[in-house]
Amino acid sequence: MSRTLADGSAGAVPATSTEGSPGPEVLRADARRNRDQLIAAAARAFVEDGPDVPMDQIARAAGVGVGTLYRRFADRESLMVAVLRHSLATLLDDVRRAAAEEPRAWDALVVSMSYSRELRASVPIASTLPPELAARLHDDPVVRGLRRELAEVADRLVEAAQQEGTLRSDVGGGDVTRLFSLVHRGASDPLDEAADLGSRRALGVILDGLRAAGHEALPGGPIRTRDLQAG
Question: Nearest to residue 17, comparing CAs of 25, 28, 26?
């Protein structure tokens, strides 16, 4: 079955600046490599050592000097915003690709909910932060735009799976999004092998519950993604 989702495009997410401004940015190859290495090292460090991990430790893990880190990111908050932007943009690109490449909407949904351990490691950082910093991450315009696009793609994918008869009809995109979040945020260490296995087993149970079959009716009505955003 052919489907076109996400405003007719399954291509890559446009690059955005990660230093705190929402505009596009063109970088030399070496500068882009340094930035990508810093974001990847920071994502892992924030998960493994918490949001207060020393910045020079992140620089060492990325293989660059601390001066390079501060030239790319003015402070810790800017780096955290960059990590969250990158993880959401990567997730959006992966979901779009799954929607374009998988033969059924259900298959695309399964692939989307089973994204990589490395990406899982970068998403939960907001839940470990002080409220004022978590609010900044939540209110960042690029983050809000990426979350809105993810919600739109999730809604389309859920509707397509229901139309093909593979997904139970009494759930909405918000239900699926909430389950997705619960599974991947539930592990204390997303990079731990045992935690990863536990998450995959929990996901298997959840997917069985989402399949179109003879289920008991759920209480209330389907939760939409816009209901989550309103909350």
Answer: 25
What CA–CA distance (Å, rounded) separates 121 from 177?
17
Distance from C-alpha of 141 to C-alpha of 143, rounded to nearest angstrom: 5
Q: Are residues 6 and 153 in contact, defined by beta-carbon separation less than 8 angstroms?
A: yes
Residue 56 half-sphere exposure, CB side, CA atoms within 13 Å? 0
Q: Which CATH class is domain 86-230?
A: mainly alpha
Give the SS3 label for residue 211. Answer: strand
The alpha carbon torsion through 113, 32, 57, 126 (nearest 10 deg) reads -40
Q: How far apart are CA 189 and CA 224, in angstroms?
A: 29
pLDDT digit string, tens, across residues 51-78 = 889 999 999 999 999 999 999 999 999 9
Instruction: Report pTM.
Output: 0.76
Q: How far is CA 12 from CA 39, 63, 89, 100, 107, in A?
A: 18, 27, 9, 12, 20
Q: Is 150 helix (H, G, I), strand (E, B) or coil?
A: helix
Give the residue extent of every domain in the chain.
Answer: 86-230
- Angle 192-118-177 from CA coordinates, rounded to 5°: 100
Contacts of 22 (CB under 8 A, 6+ apart): 16, 141, 142, 145
CA separation for the pair 74, 52 (Å, rounded): 16
- The answer to whether residues 115 and 185 touch, using CB atoms and an 8 Å cutoff, is no
**Per residue in 7-54, pLDDT tens?**
444 433 334 444 444 444 556 788 889 999 999 999 888 878 888 899
Residue type, 8: G
